[in-house]
Design goal:
- β16, α14 and β17 form a beta-alpha-beta unit.
- It is rod-shaped, with a radius of gyration of 57 Å.
- It has four domains: about 140 residues, PAS domain (Beta-Lactamase), CATH 3.30.450.20; about 45 residues; about 150 residues, Alpha-Beta Plaits (2-Layer Sandwich); about 260 residues, Alpha-Beta Barrel (TIM Barrel).
- It starts with 7 loop residues before the first helix and ends with a helix.
- The model has no long low-confidence stretch (mean pLDDT about 90).
- It is about 55% helix and about 20% strand.
- Strands 12-13-15-16-17-18-19-20 form an eight-stranded mixed β-barrel, surrounded by four helices.
- By secondary structure, the protein is an alpha/beta fold.
- Bound molecules: ligand C2E and calcium ion (2 copies).
- One calcium ion binds next to loops.
- The site of one calcium ion has 4 residues, from β17.
């Protein structure tokens, strides 16, 4: 029954009502019982006294056989309503006189009524028995009294119950009110998360204790809450600082602080539009230190780094504020200048640079002679885009080196002839696929938590008939220049799908393989057709294929590129953002790009053990990636200490020579088998 009552208030009232009502009921019943008994006793005692007196008075009448006197005496019963009839008999049991109450009437004298009792008394005179008087009494009057008593008792009971109800409803508030205010406050806190509220304590009973404990709990939550909030604020500030550093890093060279390749690319378009407006040219100078490798090898990397910083400083000193000097490679710098009217203008700047770098350099107690070779090219004359301009400045720089170093050359068309080597590669690439000279190597990715290989990356190799074994960076840049990268990557996709199907057939492995996609694929939907076709023809599940791409895929037409990328993901193919942390990399890419996995560039991994800033940034990227539910792969892991650090940082997956350099498929297959078995045995 109580379980059907919903509120404490109802329950308290119910409990007190049930207990008080039963107490009152019992008390009333006991009282009524006692009262009725007394009434009974009183009646009988009265009649007995009356009968005794009558027996005494009537004895004389019996002796003298005076019935009239006897009847007279007997009629004295008429004042007692309880007496119905009285009979006096002599010793022979013969009726001497009789009395009937007038209310009985003639037929009532049959005395068949209920509730009748007899009282008899011997009539004795001087110890001689003369007869007996018998009195018949009725309880009718008594019963009426009892009925009245019950009526009254019921009334008292009802009144008592109502009073008890009123009192308990008032008193229950003392208990339910504090509980209600406690629960109201709890609801309020839950709705608004305002932990500064406290409940008022009015009593020292259990409810008071509960309220006290509740307040204490609130205090602790409030404390924790503010602590957490502080932590979040701090963390956000740290991340923002990191992001700021990252933005700076994205456009600056870490060593010299000069603008980097990404900034150069970005500034190029504003330089060229200025040139078009003012009908001037943009000059590009490519600087390469002549003997940097030797300096590095003999005097050490620290010296090399200091030298680069000093050169950066000197070059910057001879360049106007509106022009830019950037470091684009190990010992390569590019100077981009505007408002060039003739070749002579650029030559003059190049001469100035040669001049300031010709002086002896004293560094770390060492005096050295350093020199640079400079190649120059002009926009728009020598190229309409940065890539062509740089390539031509590069050719000019090589020709300066060939001419004896420490000098400057401006590009001219004849220089292209010296790049025949490149042309050979470019021409041969066209037929390489048909001739079966390309081979795909596989490099495993290892999950740091399980210690098992959880995927691999496909990397292309070229067995060139004359040039020998070629690594991708010896031919991919040209393949990208002339678009041959497209059929080459298509070939890789098909071969990898076929290989996966083969492995599956042999029951060997069902780990996903990631293929590298050039940014050029993201200008047309053809890549989608190729991916779909390869999946269909090989019959493999799409989750076994992944793609890797760098942010460069966004350069041409970001909207189109993104739409293609989304369609690739819709096929069920996971997307890796490759080389993250170089070039254009910005933390915001992680938030906005439709990708699944981030691949931290090797250059970061190389430095995490020694450079606290790189370590902090790497940690920041890993944390951010995890927050965004992205997978994370660290590339180019070569040392145990890098693995230890990456594990501690919460990095999920690593890839690198430490475990296995890329290798042909059969070698990968047997390596994988022993590696995974070894991990299982070691456990
Ligand atoms: P990537 O995508 O960043 O590939 C990782 C490169 O790092 C590979 O060079 C790999 O051999 C190398 N590597 C892995 N672990 C280590 C390590 O611990 N230490 C060192 N020093 N290097 C490590 P690889 O194979 O020479 O490839 C170079 C680049 O060529 C790749 O860089 C990728 O961008 C491109 N590439 C390779 N295959 C293909 C392909 O099939 N298609 C396209 N479009 N690009 C490809
Ligand atoms: Ca890659
Ligand atoms: Ca990479």
């Amino acid at each position: 029954m109580f379980s059907r009552l919903n509120t404490i208030k109802q329950k308290i009232i119910a409990v007190s009502m049930v207990s008080t009502s039963s107490a009152i009921l019992l008390a009333t019943l006991a009282f009524a019982y006692e009262y009725i008994n007394t009434l009974h006793d009183d009646l009988e005692r009265r009649i007995e006294i009356e009968t005794a007196a009558l027996a005494q008075n009537i004895s004389a009448s019996l002796v003298f056989d005076d019935t009239d006197a006897a009847r007279e005496i007997l009629s004295s019963f008429s004042v007692d309503e309880a007496v119905l009839a009285a009979t006096v008999r002599d010793t022979d049991k013969q009726v001497f006189v009789e009395y009937y109450a007038s209310k009985l009437g003639e037929e009532g004298r049959a005395l068949g009524e209920q509730g009748i009792a007899f009282i008899s008394r011997k009539i004795v005179l001087d110890k001689e028995e003369l007869g007996e008087v018998t009195v018949l009494i009725t309880h009718e009057q008594l019963n009426r009294k009892i009925q009245r008593v019950f009526g009254l008792a019921a009334l008292i009971f009802a009144l008592a119950v109502v009073t008890a109800f009123i009192i308990s409803s008032r008193l229950q508030r003392a208990i339910s009110q504090p509980i209600l205010s406690l629960s109201n406050l709890a609801n309020l806190i839950a709705a608004h998360s305002n932990y500064s509220s406290r409940v008022d304590i009015h009593s020292r009973d259990e409810i008071g204790e509960l309220a006290k404990a509740f307040n204490h709990m609130l205090e602790q939550i409030e404390h924790r809450d503010s602590h957490l909030e502080k932590q979040v604020r701090q963390r956000t500030a740290e991340l923002e600082k990191l992001a700021e550093e990252f933005r700076h890093r994205a456009f600056h060279d870490a060593l010299t602080g000069l603008p980097n390749r990404a900034q150069l690319n970005e500034r190029f378009s504003s330089f060229t539009s200025h040139a078009r407006r003012t009908k001037t040219s943009v000059g590009l100078l490519l600087l390469d230190l002549d003997n940097f490798k030797t300096i590095n090898d003999t005097l050490g990397h620290d010296f090399g780094d200091e030298l680069l910083k000093l050169i950066a400083h000197r070059v910057q000193a001879v360049i106007r504020g509106e022009d830019i000097v950037s470091r684009v490679g190990g010992d390569e710098f590019v100077i981009m200048v505007q408002d060039i009217d003739s070749d002579q203008d650029l030559n003059a700047i190049a001469d100035n640079v040669l001049e300031v770098l010709r002086d002896d350099i004293v560094l770390l107690n060492q005096r050295i002679k350093s020199s640079v070779s400079i190649g120059g090219a002009l926009y728009p004359k020598d190229g309409g885009d940065l890539l062509t301009l740089k390539r031509n400045a590069d050719l000019a720089m090589y020709s300066a080196k060939e001419a004896g170093k420490n000098q400057y050359r401006l590009f001219n068309q004849n220089m292209t002839d010296s790049s025949t080597q490149r042309l050979i590669v470019q021409n041969d690439l066209q037929t390489a696929i048909e001739r079966g000279e390309l081979e795909i190597y596989y490099q495993p990715k290892i999950n740091l938590r399980t210690g098992l290989a959880n995927g691999s990356e496909a990397l292309i190799r070229w067995h060139h008939p004359q040039e020998g074994f070629l690594n991708p960076n010896e031919f991919i840049p040209f393949a990208e220049e002339n678009g041959l990268i497209l059929p080459m990557d298509h070939f890789v996709i098909r071969s990898v799908c076929y290989q996966i199907a083969l492995w599956k057939q042999k029951g060997n492995t069902s780990l996903p393989v990631a293929i590298n996609l050039s940014g050029l694929h993201f200008q047309s939907e053809e890549i989608l057709r190729v991916l779909r076709g390869a999946l269909k023809d090989s019959g493999i599940a799409s989750h076994l294929l992944e793609v890797e791409l760098t942010e460069a895929f966004l350069i041409e037409d970001p909207d189109r590129a993104l739409s293609i990328l989304k369609k690739i993901r819709r096929l069920g193919i996971k997307v890796n953002l490759d080389d993250f942390g170089t070039g254009y990399s910005s933390l915001s890419y992680l938030r906005s790009l439709p990708i699944d996995i981030v691949k931290l560039d090797k250059s970061f991994i190389d430095r995490i053990c020694h450079d606290p800033q790189d370590k902090a940034i790497t940690q920041g990227i890993i944390t951010l990636a995890r927050d965004l539910k992205l997978g994370i792969v660290a590339e180019g892991v070569e040392l145990q200490e890098q693995i230890d650090l990456l594990t501690a940082m919460g990095c999920e997956t690593v890839q690198g020579y430490f475990y296995k350099p890329p290798c042909p498929a059969p070698e990968f297959e047997s390596w994988l088998e022993t590696f995974n078995q070894q991990v299982v045995i070691d456990r």
